Amino acid sequence: MTTIAVDAMGGDDAPASVVAGAVLAAQEGYLSLLLVGDEPRLRSELANHPAVPGIRIIHAPSVVAMDESPSFVIRRRRDSSIWRANELVKAGEADAVISAGHTGASMATSFFLLGTLQGVERPAIATILPTLKWAAVLLDVGANVDSKPHHLVQFAIMGHVYAQRMLGMPKPRVGLLSIGEEDTKGNELTKETFKLLKQTQIDFIGNVEGRDVYTGDADVIVCDGFIGNVALKISEGLAEAIMQVLRREITQSLFGRLGFLLLKPAFRRFKRRVDYAEYGGAPLLGINGVSIICHGRSSPKAIKNAIGVARDFVRDDVNRHIRDDIERHVELHLGTAN
Amino acid sequence: MTTIAVDAMGGDDAPASVVAGAVLAAQEGYLSLLLVGDEPRLRSELANHPAVPGIRIIHAPSVVAMDESPSFVIRRRRDSSIWRANELVKAGEADAVISAGHTGASMATSFFLLGTLQGVERPAIATILPTLKWAAVLLDVGANVDSKPHHLVQFAIMGHVYAQRMLGMPKPRVGLLSIGEEDTKGNELTKETFKLLKQTQIDFIGNVEGRDVYTGDADVIVCDGFIGNVALKISEGLAEAIMQVLRREITQSLFGRLGFLLLKPAFRRFKRRVDYAEYGGAPLLGINGVSIICHGRSSPKAIKNAIGVARDFVRDDVNRHIRDDIERHVELHLGTAN
To answer: Which of A179, A249, A263 sits opposite B260 (nearest CB)?
Structure first.
């Protein structure tokens, strides 16, 4: 049975919503969950829910504060829930770790304790975006800045595997996020990366512009973490702003309010389509282990779905496929170099 | 009277929508418009509209094709409408030029023919985004890639002047687009730029994350053109995708359709709020002249509004204010260096 270590203290509503999400996941069965955090608090949180088998508490006395730097966490917070949860994976007591806490600290801890897969220099955070067709994988959305072209090639290979294994896409089309479709458009990083991606065995469809991200024409979209983070956050901010303006406009008249009432089911279906909670957490791809990063504002449902992502990631042995594809890529290029 | 050279052949719907937009602008009076392009075609287009004073046709035999490189345009397309329109500004026969054609060719031609203002190394395209409060200036959205920190400082000073003069903001708050609020967050470019911006006389509020772009907490948001272009295009793509999904959801049931009917005025008001056409074109700031870049899909209304932007830009002598502020900044730093 898959065992997942859950940082129960991380997230805006932790531990309440994390514990609630873990209970939801445990109710579906076939999982062993290790809730890592302050034992008395977790015990009393759990008491608010019906008892389910498969949940165990692992005590960790401290919590990483949002203003603590990742390097401080590595040096001084080895008794924290994030650190302990990652240690369980390193020790082989858990197959995966999930955290909705301090993203930088989660990444740094997983990177430091678990290391990277053979051939991967830098891990990347992969997120799933809803598109007009279905969904696309965007990576990196913030694990790295100032990436080099060969890092982006590694991200492309990892994202390709992730789309195949986790989204069931047999032959994902991989695009490079840039500012024009022609290979001559972009910055130094993308122009160099373009050349390298053409030499891989993945289905590289060329540059993808910002306005094509949500059309669904690319299944995997590769970029540096600075760009990806701005792209992701601006999307979240804009979607929220649009809904807020629309709501304000709608409630300004009686007809508007009546119309809104009639449209409520449609709005709800729509929200579900674009709701990040549906997609759960974002994996830190390339780590020698399974580490899933959740949004700080994760609801219980988002936590449950992130636990599902972790379980599938382990079950489908995504890391073995990443290792294989990276190795094949390296061999191909050592071969042509000689 | 202000004279504006209009590239009548540039844009997806050119010359029809450009001519229609010019006619709308001319109907408001106090303007002299030079429509630059194929004379017979423009003459027959104009015949579709009621005659208005203030419009003159300047013949240009060729049109820049979308797949021609900016350097090709500079070498071989000196008889094109873009080139001729810019030449009119250089010769002092027009005060400003607007084009909805090939953005790269427009920028390159203005840069090549008109040069930059004293102290400005690179021009930047500034666009106006709607926010929850009102509006914000985002720059650069695509004139440059791989910018250096001191370029971003120049963009900040130019964006600050633009917000003051064109949006009537007395003391615009300037933010640096990055991936975390602390000054230690970001990439090499933003970390170095952060330090430089703290030494300017503008109201620098620090890093702004993607999700804060649409809240309206910053009035001017500064970034490299690659980032800004991705941010702008992804916003356009997402807004379109959201409206499309919402429309699809809404028309799926009778209640939905009835509700939609009742909400139509609200949707229309909303669309107006986020419609780029309302804001007209985006100026190429830093050029020694006035050059306004329009969206390729500009409607007649968007063209009319872009002409209005050009007129206000000339009338308020925005370039003089940019020159003054850049000069003051340079003096301040030469002063402290000694």
So the answer is: A263
Residue that has been written with the tokens 């229609």 in this structure? B20
Asked if the Cβ–Cβ distance from B263 to A259 is below 8 Å, we say yes
- Considering only CA atoms, which of A133, A327, A293 is closest in space to residue A217? A133
Percentage with pLDDT > 90 across chain A: 75
Q: CB–CB of B190/B176 below 8 Å?
A: yes
Query: CA quadruple A106, A108, A112, A118: dihedral positive or negative?
Result: positive
For residues B88 and B97, is the Cβ–Cβ distance under 8 A?
Answer: yes
The percent of residues in chain A predicted with pLDDT above 70, rounded, is: 96
Cβ distance B270 to A245 less than 8 Å, yes or no, reads yes
- Tens of pLDDT, residues B110-150: 999 999 999 999 999 999 998 988 889 999 999 999 999 99
Strands in chain B per DSSP E: 2-7, 31-37, 55-59, 96-99, 124-130, 135-139, 173-178, 203-209, 220-222, 282-285, 291-293
Using CA atoms, how far apart are residues A82 and A98, in angstroms rounded to an integer?
A: 9
Backbone φ and ψ of B97, nearest 5°: -130, 140
Cα–Cα distances in angstroms (integers) from residue A262 to residues A214, A253, B91, B256, in the given order:
28, 14, 61, 6
Predicted local confidence at residue B240, as pLDDT: 86
- What per-residue string of b and e applies to B91-123 under the rule 16 or more CB within 10 Å gives b? eeebbbbbbbbbbbbbbbbbbebbebbebbebb
How far from A58 is each of A50, A62, A308, B49, B138, CA to CA, in Å? 19, 12, 20, 78, 48
CA distance A71 to chain B (A): 13
Nearest to A159 by CA among A146, A181, A176: A176
A188-241 tens-digit pLDDT: 999 999 999 999 999 999 999 999 999 999 999 999 999 999 999 999 899 888
Q: Which of residues 235-294 of B touch A (CB under 8 A)?
A: 235-242, 244-246, 249-250, 252-253, 255-256, 258-263, 265-267, 269-270, 273-274
Distance (Å) from the alpha carbon of B100 to chain A's nearest alpha carbon: 17
What is the Cα–Cα distance from A327 to A333, expressed in whole angstroms?
A: 10
Residue A268, Cβ density class (10 Å: 0-12 exposed, 13-18 middle, ≥19 buried): exposed
A270 band by pLDDT with thresholds 50, 70 and 90? low
Q: Is the confidence at residue B334, as pLDDT, over 90? A: no
Residue B164 has pLDDT above 80, yes or no: yes
Nearest to B237 among A214, A240, A266 (CB): A214
Enumerate residues 6+ apart whose C-beta is below 8 A from B43: B57
Residue of A nearest to B265 (CA): A256
Whether residue A338 is predicted with pLDDT greater than 50 in this model: the reply is no
B70 at interface of A, judged by CB pairs closer than 8 A: no
Report chain B's mean pLDDT, rounded to a whole number.
91
Instruction: Give the rounded distance of the alpha carbon of B178 from its chain centre.
Output: 22
Q: Do residues A210 and B257 touch, judged by C-beta distance below 8 A? A: no
Structural domains of chain B sorted by starting position, each given as residue range(s) with its CATH number in brackets: 1-120+286-316 (3.40.718.10), 125-277 (3.40.718.10)
Q: Are B63 and B37 in contact (CB under 8 A)?
A: yes
CA geometry: angle A156, A158, A160, nearest 5 deg? 65
